[in-house]
Amino acid sequence: MSKELTSRATDYSQWYNDLVIKGQLADYSAVRGCMVIKPYGYALWENMRDQLDKMFKETGHVNAYFPLFVPKSLFEAEEKNAEGFAKECAIVTHYRLKTDPDNKGKLIVDPDAKLEEELIIRPTSEAIIWNTYKGWIQSYRDLPLLINQWANVVRWEMRTRLFLRTAEFLWQEGHTAHATKEEAIEETEKMLQVYADFVEEYMAVPVIRGVKTANERFAGAEDTYCIEALMQDGKALQAGTSHFLGQNFAKAFNVQFLNKENKLEYVWATSWGVSTRLIGALIMAHSDDQGLVMPPKIAPLQVVIVPIYKGEESKKIIDEKSAAIIKDLKALGVSVKYDENDNARPGWKFAEYELKGVPVRIAMGLRDIENNVAEVARRDTKEKSSVSLDGIAAYIKNLLDEIHQNIYNRALAFRNENIREANTWEEFIQLLDEKGGFISAHWDGTGETEEKIKEMTKATIRCIPLNNKKENGICILTGQPSSERVLFARAY
User: Fold this and answer.
1) What SS3 class is residue 158?
2) Domains parsed from the chain with CATH numbers
3) 454 vs 1, more confident
4) Which of 312, 367, 391, 427 sits at a 20 to 30 Å CA gap from 238?
């Protein structure tokens, strides 16, 4: 099975595509730029979604749902936001088809069914949500408004990659309204921390928390906070963003409230989101040349038991023993599958579950049972152990925690080894081309220099790390004074 995969060293991009397809996470679609998320991939997304949803609710947020379509007049109300997304918008112009009179059995757009106003298929939902909030918010008693939506969005991407960049993708978007600037900033920072906690604790991917430069900021935001992760090929990936929107959307949609002094004020806003892109991050942060490596806390399947038998009598004994183990594992909250499919040999099954990244595999034959043991294989290190059947469920539960921590530690060590300082332009170029990773370097703070570096190297400022230490230096490109280093990288 693993032989079918392109190795990372040969072609990292192809390795990634192979994993997504052969690991049965997703498939290409008949619709250009879109993907089909297969059951195994969707189960992974569900686990991620459910955990995030729980974390949102623990911080006081509730879920709602808003329309897929945004009238063009609403979309363009906040100019910076509209301008930022204009080139990526899919637009509905007509509401009906009719039979083609010149080609029987075919359909054409009915020219008489043109919409009075075009509808934008949401690339993000600020416009329709803030138009709605106008009717929901009258007084300080209505604030804060803490709402999240799980939805699909469309951004008409020309160059697409499964999970990483598709024309349609699944995500969540939080949209909150507050009485004060301080409260909105606190919310923005709080949700960034929720994302960081989720990605590190459940996806086992270490992230750097920071803020974006003005050039990289979300369109319509005053500040964009982000978490940045490092993939095994040395490229960065933005794993989540949280935006302080100031009063921009409140003013665009005239969302005001009566404060405690009975005076009208514009509300303060935030928005924040993560998407199915996180699955791409998970794949590239952990997987190897043999297949996917799933972090146990969100793996679609944590344990698989493969019986090894000859004849029905021996299978019956293994079935009974496996049933007891499965019961004990499920009681501990562990997801487990008993693969008794007789259409495939055990060796094929081992390769299949290795490819799909199942954290723990248990193999058990009649002789094993006679010796009161089972073979336990862990996916992260590929180590195999003979484990006593007495208390095996508790052993597996502890092993899953150990695997999860090991995956995180491995990714953290890799990330830390690949943060390097550059003090000259020559050094910057050399590190970028030969080493990759994050490059910590001085920048003069201007958008012009940032854009020039991007044009020359395809590297962007990924973030200005939070709690960044101040140090005097000179910009690597212009030689102008700088008060702190920022993190550059080539990115997905």
Assistant:
1) coil
2) 2-91+121-286 (3.30.930.10), 303-406 (3.40.50.800), 419-489 (3.30.110.30)
3) 454
4) 427
